[in-house]
User: Fold this.
Amino acid sequence: MRLVLDANILFSALYDMDSTAGRLLLLAIDGEVRLVSTEHVKEEMERILASKLGYSKDELGGLVAALPVDWIGRGIYEEELAEATRILADPADASLLACAAVLGCEVVSGDREVLASKFRKVKVRRLREFKGR
Amino acid sequence: MATSISVTEGTRNELLLLKIKEGYSSLEALLAHLITGYKRQRLLEESGRLRRRMQERKLSLEDLVE
Assistant:
C-alpha cells in the first residue's frame, strides 16, 4: 500500500511516535507500507520548522533524511497541479491531490479542506481510518 | 540479487559474532535488523528534538500545523 501524507500527519507523528501517525511511520520503516509526500509539502515543513522552531539547515536535512518518506519532485505531478490548484488554493494541499492522481494512490490528511476535496478519483482518508491496521 | 561489500576483518568478525549470539539465520538478516533499528532510532531522535524545541518555545502541535 502506498499513501501520500500531508504535513499535518508528519508533524503529528514526530510529536508523538506512539500515536496512530507515529505508528504509520514505524510501519513504513518495517516495509509494511510505503509513504510518499511532495516537494511542496517538504518545503512547507522546512519553512515552518525554520521559522517557528529555529531549525538550522543541517537540522532540517537531518529531519527530512530520518523520515521514512519518498519525496516526489514537482516534475512528476506538475501536469495535474494546475487543475488541482483550482480545487485547493494552497499549493502544498493541491500538490497532494496532484501527486496522488499521478501515482494512483490515496491521500492521508487531517486538513478539513483536503478531506472535503473532490479531485479525479483520488480518495482522501482521515488518519483514524488506519487505527488498528 | 546478491552482491558484496568490503569491510575490515575486525568488523566482519564483530558481525559474525553478533549473528551467532543473536541467532540470525544470515548476515543479511542481521544487517536488515540493524538498518531498521538505526532508522527507528534516528526517527525517535528527531521526534525528541522537535518536542524539545516546541517546549522551549511554548508551542503546541496546533501552532505547527496552522
Remarks:
- Residues 9-65 of chain B form one domain.
- The two ends of chain B are 46 Å apart (CA to CA).
